[in-house]
Amino acid sequence: GQQLNQSPQSMFIQEGEDVSMNCTSSSIFNTWLWYKQDPGEGPVLLIALYKAGELTSNGRLTAQFGITRKDSFLNISASIPSDVGIYFCAGHNAGNMLTFGGGTRLMVKP
Amino acid sequence: SQTIHQWPATLVQPVGSPLSLECTVEGTSNPNLYWYRQAAGRGLQLLFYSVGIGQISSEVPQNLSASRPQDRQFILSSKKLLLSDSGFYLCAWSTHSNQPQHFGDGTRLSIL
Questions:
Q1: Model pLDDT for residues A60-81, shown as the tens digit of each residue
Q2: Interchain pair A48, B46: CB under 8 A
Q3: Residue A46, by phi and psi: left (phi above 0), alpha (psi -120 to 50) or beta?
Q4: Dihedral, CA atoms, A98, A101, A102, A104, nearest 10 degrees?
Q5: Would you call A80 helix, strand, or coil by DSSP?
Q6: What does the radius of gyration of chain B's CA atoms come to, in whole angstroms?
Q7: Which pLDDT does position B83 carry in this prediction?
Q8: Which of A4, A103, B10, B104 could connect to B108 by a Cys-Cys bridge, CB 3.0–4.6 Å?
Q9: Percentage above 70 pLDDT, chain A
Q10: Do A41 and B105 touch (CB under 8 A)?
Q11: Backbone angles phi, psi at B83, to 5 degrees
Q12: Which helix (H) or strand (E) holds A92?
């Protein structure tokens, strides 16, 4: 089946740093979604992208739908401690099935 | 506004016992409903989805089954739990199959 390759798998952040993560696929997707999951909770939708090239912001978060429709990135500016968690990308294919990436775990530098 | 409820939040069950997890959605009609399993530190695996009452599609052959007895109620069941059924179970809904899914808070299932 289709796969979404999400990277990095994990990263440490220091408060105030900008963060970037991305998802790529060998297949075309019609939508790209970004979710955040806190420990013990369900994923929460952060940003939804519906058109190739679309750039959308939600506060300090910015995500883009790649022109080729095979990739998307999520940037977090000026990170704060509550940004820690697991971020998932997800995409709808032509058959409207939603595929999830493996997640990026954001942690705070000790 | 729409809300989704899952219960119980945590469950500890012995091997071989039955299972019933419930999910209900409020504030919308005829939603698409989904059950996912998430292993610790891993991604989400789609188990079942439903586009209407009594309509269930299974994505992965397994020891589990799903039912949708009412428009906004989705139930995940098993007759005899296995150790491998442990995990974090998430229910989700969407207005349409090509729209974003919205998740409940999950049920942490531990099999002893």
A1: 999 999 999 999 999 999 999 9
A2: no
A3: alpha
A4: -130
A5: coil
A6: 13
A7: 94
A8: B10
A9: 98
A10: yes
A11: -55, -35
A12: strand A85-92
